[in-house]
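In practice, a research group might receive sequence data for several interacting partners and want a quick structural hypothesis before committing to experiments. The following worked case mirrors that situation: the sequences arrive first, and a predicted assembly follows.
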Amino acid sequence: TQLLEQSPQFLSIQEGENLTVYCNSSSVFSSLQWYRQEPGEGPVLLVTVVTGGEVKKLKRLTFQFGDARKDSSLHITAAQPGDTGLYLCAAMYGNNRLAFGKGNQVVVIP
Amino acid sequence: ETGVTQTPRHLVMGMTNKKSLKCEQHLGHNAMYWYKQSAKKPLELMFVYNFKEQTENNSVPSRFSPECPNSSHLFLHLHTLQPEDSALYLCASSQPGQGAPGELFFGEGSRLTVL
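A structural hypothesis for the assembly, expressed as tokens:
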């Protein structure tokens, strides 16, 4: 059983468009992280959200943690080719265990 | 540059070979991890080391043998692997109690192909 479901699995958009990807679960988490992994690289942490309903912004990226702390979304405004990558959500649960989703593969076409 | 370096970046080996993956972190962290990343699967935690002591083995087959000689170095020794073991192997480090909860610093990975 997959603890974290990320959707869509793959998304291709034109430069300048907006996009939203999702990370959902039936479990409650103490915190949730988003990582971005570019081709040939390891994942790099973008943000950690801790409080239900929390919204964090990182330039053109907006991250939201659901009120019930079971889900999260990542919205990118005016996407650029540099935003291309695999976006991974990871959630802390139980005794400091970290679970990852399969990722949202985003391709931004120039 | 995340401060975590993995070598080799690419490795091709036969099923009867013995090889090792190396990871070194320059961040002064006390915890180090091996993860396996396969296509269309979530990252799978393999091993966790805290202060050089193995604290977690996530039911990993014995053909994978980790070694942590000190807090900065982590190895993954590979022996008689199977083709399904082909994947990207990621090393990560963290400092519990510092930074964001559970924040991991990953290396660039070692792409392993088993023929």
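Before designing any experiment, note the following. Chain B has a mean pLDDT of 92. The radius of gyration of chain B is 13 Å.
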